[in-house]
Amino acid sequence: MSAIFKQELKLNLKSLLIWALTVGGLGFICVMMYKSMEGDVMEMADSFSNMGAFSEAFGMSTLSIATLAGFFATEVGTVHGLGSAMFAAFLASCMLSKEEDGHTGEFLYSLPVSRWKVVTSKCLAVIVNLILFTLICGIFYVMGFVCLGEDVLWEELIRFLLSMLFMNVEVASLALLVSAVSQRNRMGVGLGIALVLYVSDITGRVVPDMKDYLFVEPFSFTNASEIFAGIDAPEYSIPIAAAVTIAALAAAYAVYLKRDLAS
Amino acid sequence: MENVISIKNLTKTYGKKRGVSDISFDVMKGEIFGFIGPNGAGKSTTIRSMLGFLRFNSGSINILGMDSVKEHEKILKEVGYMPSEALFYPAMKVSEVIKYAAEVRGQDCRAEAEMLCERLKLDTGKKIKELSLGNRKKVSIVCAMQHKPKLFIFDEPTSGLDPLMQNIFFELIKEYVDKGTTCMLSTHVLSEVSRYCDRAAVMREGHLIKLAKVEELLETSVKNVKLTANGEHKEYVYKGDINELISELSKKKIENLCIEEPSLEDLFMHFYDGKEGA
Q1: Closest-approach residue (CA) in chain A for B107
Q2: N or C: fewer beta carbons within 10 Å in chain B?
Q3: Domain B1-78+149-164+178-214: which CATH class?
Q4: Is residue A253 situated within a structural domain?
Q5: If you measure CA to CA, which chain A residue comes closest to B89?
Q6: Which residue ranges make up each domain of chain B?
Q7: How many CB pairs under 8 A join A and B?
Q8: Domain count, chain A
Q9: For A85-94, A254-263, B174-183, which range has the lowest pLDDT when averaged over its residues?
């Protein structure tokens, strides 16, 4: 089992580095831009916070974009939220199906290891990849604060990254279910899930009637502006995310353990 | 003799499509068992059901005294499988694939793997994506043999291997079989069956239509007749009482006549013409 886990980490190392360096690097650049934009942002902050639904959607009515925390939450919150969700979907949507898509399944499943152990090893590899992704990005963001000579907002930053990690796990569990059902790689479907969830969060914040239902989708508890402003996640959003994750994983196991494998 | 594989009334369907229907046969310890049939006959479905890739509808498969569903993982520890498509992770080196297979098995197979790579002249430093089909087949052979299994299951093993390597491959099989390994091989190449196999099963359209010793398959009442009579040349397969054939031939003015045992290829065609059932 550990051999399969190690193998998956090795196979996904390049993707992890590309995604983490890209998202983390973009976040770092965003933080570094704060100083050069500080004066202009001050002038625009009032306008940004009074743009109605647009301000609501991007959290600019919650926290002033003129502050580093507000600027970080608005800019990096969007980049990290979308980037990390897409990485989670990209990784998990091919995790099981790639063996049949690449015709390596007959080699792997002729080795003395049960499908249950294969799925578990691959799930653990996804989780470890997501943790490493979060850590690498986190290092970039801290470097940004340090390079600016500002105090690192440790508490808010850690809460923000942990929320994002939990959201990534939920997105990955849904993408893993897609991978378990399909005999071909469905990366498009996985990325589609991440984008639909992100857009539904933005829509939910813009459309008044949908606000009451925001808690059902994973981006609801990762809103960076609310986290940096010290606002709690919507009620039930975390238990619902945990339930969705467990249900998706259980379904992925149930389907994959029973179905015929393509040659 | 002890049965290494025992398949009883195996049926597997793919929705409404036929897979295999009511297949039963045994493979005995220490034998080389041929599994013959054209594409779509059900050979791979049977093998893939044996290895747990497919969930069969009914029947039972017992391998090395263990139930193929309940003791699937234990069975695979003792089996060396070579799929018809030898595909591995393209970015990995040959040595890494061989090591990975041994690691998942939890066995140190270095000495055996080294011997096999040397015999098969396999360059372990190359990446999988750089290999030809023949060389990928060699990797597959090493992965199937390095842990010295009790049972080999080979699906179209020699396709892509050059004749020299085919000889080395069968030499290796014989050496392992001499040490107690059993071998089941599915193939289209009937000369391999007649040269190396003890018994063979013939599949047609999801049914097992013949199971016998290879010598018995060759010693049927079917004869190849090559005849030149009344200025006309004919070649045909005759099945029936040989005395009736002679009586029939005696009525003709024969210029040349040859009656011979059919080759396995002729028999194969005979079975697939639908002239013989199980």
Answers
A1: A112
A2: N
A3: alpha beta
A4: yes
A5: A104
A6: 1-78+149-164+178-214, 87-148, 221-261
A7: 65
A8: 1
A9: A254-263
